[in-house]
Each structure stands twice: as structure tokens, then as C-alpha cells.
# Entry
Amino acid sequence: MKTNEKTSLFLRVLAATFGMYFLASSITAFVLVSLEINPEIQEIVEAFKIEFLIGIAVILWVFYTKNIVRAWFWIIFMTGIFFALSFWIQKGGVL
Amino acid sequence: MNYSFNTSMSFTHTWVSLIVGWAIFFILVTGTLSFFNYDITRWLEPERPLEVNLVQKPQYEQLNVMLDFLNKESPKAKKWGIKPPHIQNQTPNGASRTYIVTYAERKSWYFNPLTLEEIKPVEVRQTQGGELFINLHHQFYYMDKYLGIILTGILAFFALVVIVSGVIIHKRIFKDFFTFRANRNKRSWLDVHNISGVLALPFVVMILYTGLVYYSPYYVTIPYEMIKEKKEQRIEAKKALEDNSSLPILEKPTANIKEMLVEAEKKFGVGNIAYIEVGKNITQGLYIDLKPPFGSELTRSHSADTTMRFDGITGKKLEIIDSYTTGTKFFRSLVSLHEAWFASYPLRWLLFICGVMSCIMVATGLNLWVLKRKEKNISFGFRLVEKLNIGVFIGLLVGIAGFFWANRLLPTLMFERASWEVHLLFMVWAWMIVYALIRPVKKAWVESFYIASFAFGAIPFINFLSTDKHLGITLVQGDFVLAFVDITMLVFAFSFALFAYRLQKKWAINEEKKEVIV
# Structure
């Protein structure tokens, strides 16, 4: 494999492991924290374990996307946004 | 990189499956065996009596005596539990199918159901029993418990990725369902992989997904840490409301238990009261809960569908005020789907067959990886995978047969007997891997299958020589559950021998053809 392809593969694997983990965690955290207002619904959504469904989608996307560097920017950006929102809501902010 | 959607899915499917394949095979095999873990435990502890022709006193008599005993023995308990014998009861030592078991303050006592005297359960040989397969299934072995849980979780998650990508690249699902082109090597293997995959697909997706929900806070910790505080606050608040600490003394209920049983049997069926609990709470005072046996309902939840509560003094029906929340019930439904709590024996066999098919799917898939690259680049990695396939897949099965051999052949008073049975499982497996590494590939395939066939086929025979719970006795006396363990071993032995014979013949024909051409 050429160096370009090798770095692309490496970045994809990195995105499929670490990137996926944090992106899925952030989205799930956001959903669960924003359901704090209704604990019964929160329990039910918690039992669905959506982090796995999001994780699968992220992995499939990461191996399909054409430009992995751009994908990485999206991953970091989205993870940041969702974590920021989750912490904001958890500390008592209102969306 | 591959820009077509299909090729990228194909890439993902091939390489992620190579990473997780062997470990997933291990998890699937031990999981499939776990469907019958109680029955395997019974087979592994042949000192237990057969479970046929149970004679017992009427239930209300049993309960009266048990409640007297509990009143005398442990009046300070928070709850008393009584389990009359029922064929669907499932405890690791099988005791609650043939004895009455009573529980209080984390202790248990056993009673003969006919004479109602206290007995000690039979002493059995030291063994991990069918629970071993459950533990291997989610914790692996020779490693820290939590590391095992996290590893199996990660592997199961990647297996889900493999399944989803596999379904995406397998476009013609219904047409391929009926396609099996025999005797065409690579194409035939692909067809076996597709058929076993498609037939077992709903099962595999369900199993992988429900398996992940058990311990997901261990692997994906961040969301749960964020909501943990408020959750614990709510639980503390709820506990403070129902402070039962001022009611430590339980008394024997004075209401008419016979009427309660009749009323409950109207709902759950005659003879179907398998668990009785006596407790006390602030709102309702002394109460008795009557429950049907394990597995009668999907969630095994504490709610009005599965429990009938009576007042201990007046005998009136009461509401279940401490039932599980919807979220808990949903979670328990998922767990129940994974462990097949609800499944009676015919359904359990169907799940077992699905499990076997998913194991075949994984094994043929990894074999396909080897076959596709056989003519191209023969690298070290390729050779390793080719040989490890034989050693890991067939070797694991031989190892499990070795575990059953060890259970019958190790001396009963041996020190650390239970651990040594498991050590033997892994030792036999390791030896089969070494065997596969040193033998030429084709010979290794055929010989490993013959070894597996012998290993499984000899088990009923060893059973006959070393215990009195062999096929000759179990079939005659009607304990079919125990008999079926032996029969399943014979079925597997026969299948392996058949497969080895066909492989041998096919390769012999190919060799002849090559010689003729040359």
C-alpha cells in the first residue's frame, strides 16, 4: 500500500475505535442527560443502549467516507458539541 | 481506499471479522452450551438422584410445616422464602426440583417433600458445573473478571458491526436462502456461510444486542457516570420512604393458606406455585406472595402478572406496591431474551440449534478468508490463520469434550478438582492447536475431526463405565433430560465423523485427479 493509503487506513482505524467511542458516548450522554426531567423515560431509553447503535453507524461511515481527515474534523466537532451540551444541561442550564 | 459503498462494507466485514472471529467462536460455543447449563450441571454431578416420579405431600401441608420451621429458626429475617419442588425450578444445584428449599437471612435449608424432615443435599463431586460455560462465556478465564467482561463486550460490539456489514453486502438474501451449490469448493463454502448466517440471523442479532446490554456501563462509562448521581439520589429518597427497619420480626401468617393456594392456582395453574415469600412492609403489614415457577413470564418481574399477594392475617388479596419500574422491566426483558428464561425445552432446543448454526457461520466465514487467499499471497499471516482455524475451532470442541472426560475420570477426592477440570479443557485445546500447527493442513483437518468424533463419542461410554446415570438407566427410568446430554454427544460425534470421512474422500479424489493430469 502507498503511504497515502496507509495513513488513510490508520486514521480510519483510529476513528473506528477511539473516535467512535467518544462520539457514541457523547450523543448517548446528551440524550440521557436531557431526559433527566422524566426519570421513567430515561430508564427506558437507557435500557435501549443506543450507544451501540450509534457506534455501529459511526464505524460503517468511517470506512465508507472518502476523506477521512474531514471526517475526523466532524467527529471531534460533534463530540465536542454534544459533550458541551450535556455538561451544560447537567449543571442546570436550560436549552 | 474503496469508494463504493459495497466494497467498503466488504472491506469492513472481512477485516473486522478476522480480528474478532476466533474469540467470538469461543463466546458462541460456550453461550450455546449455556442454554442447557442446569442440565449439564446435573450430568456433571451424577451423585444427584434422578428427577422422575417425585412423591410429595400436598402443598398446604408442606407450607405449614415450613412456616413453623422458619418461625422458630429465623424470626428476625426481613423475608422468608419457600421453594416447593417444581420441574421448572432452576437452581445451580438442581435441589429445588426434588427438595423443598427454604431461605431466610442468606441461609437455606432443604427438606424432603414427602416426610417433611430436614435433610442435607447429596454430596457431589467438586465441579464448576454448567455455570462454567456461563462464566467462560462472559468473563473468559485466566484473567481478571472485569477485564474479561470488558473484552467480551468489545468483541460482541465488533461482531455486531461484522453482522451489519455482512447483511449489507449480502444483497440477495431471499434468493441466496435457497442456493446451495455443492462440490464447488469456494462457492459452496460461501453458500454454507450465507445459509447458516441467514437462518441464524435474527437469533444472532438478538443475542449480540441483548448480550451487550448486561454490562454496558462497564465499557461505555461516560453517559452512565453523568446520570449516576441523580439516579442514586432518587433511590435513596425512595428507600427513605419505605423504611422497614422498625419491623424486624416476622410471624407465621395466621390466615388460611389453603384458600390462598386455591385462589393463586386459579390464575397460575394447578401445581404451579413454585415460590412463596413472606414479608412485612409499613403499608400492608404481614403479607404472603405466591409466584409461578421461573420462566413463566418474560421479565421475571415483581408485578401483578407474576405475583399474587395476600394479607398474612386476614387472607385478603393485596396490591403489589413495590413492583419494578418500566425501565427495569424492559431491561430484564432483554436479559431474559438473552438467557432464554422464558423458554421451555422444545424452544431451548431451537435456540441451541440456532447457536450451533451461528458457530458454523463464524467458522465457515474465517475459512472463506483462507480459501480466498490460498492461491495468492502465501504470507506468514495467511499460514498462521490457516492452521489456527483448525486448531481453534475443532480444538475448542475437543477441549470441551475433554472437560466432560475430566469430570468423569478425575478422582473425586482430588485437591482443587473443579479447577483442574477446566485446566484440562484448556490443555486439550492448546494441544489441538499445537497439533494443527505441526501437521500438514489437509491431514490436520481430517485427523482433528476424527479426534473430535472420538472424543465426543466416547463420553457416553465413559459415563457407562464410571457412573450409574448412563443411557442404559436414564432412558429406561425416563429421565430424558439427562439422557439427552449423552445422546447429543453421540449426534455430534457422528456428524464430525461423517464430515471427516467426506473431506477425506474428496481430497483423495482430488489427489488422484492431479496425478492423472500430471
Remarks:
- Chain B has a mean pLDDT of 87.
- The radius of gyration of chain B is 27 Å.
- Chain B touches chain A at residues 1, 3, 5, 8-9, 11-12, 157, 160-161, 164-165, 168, 209, 212-213, 216, 220-224, 226-227, 230-231, 234, 325-328, 330-331, 334 (CB under 8 Å).
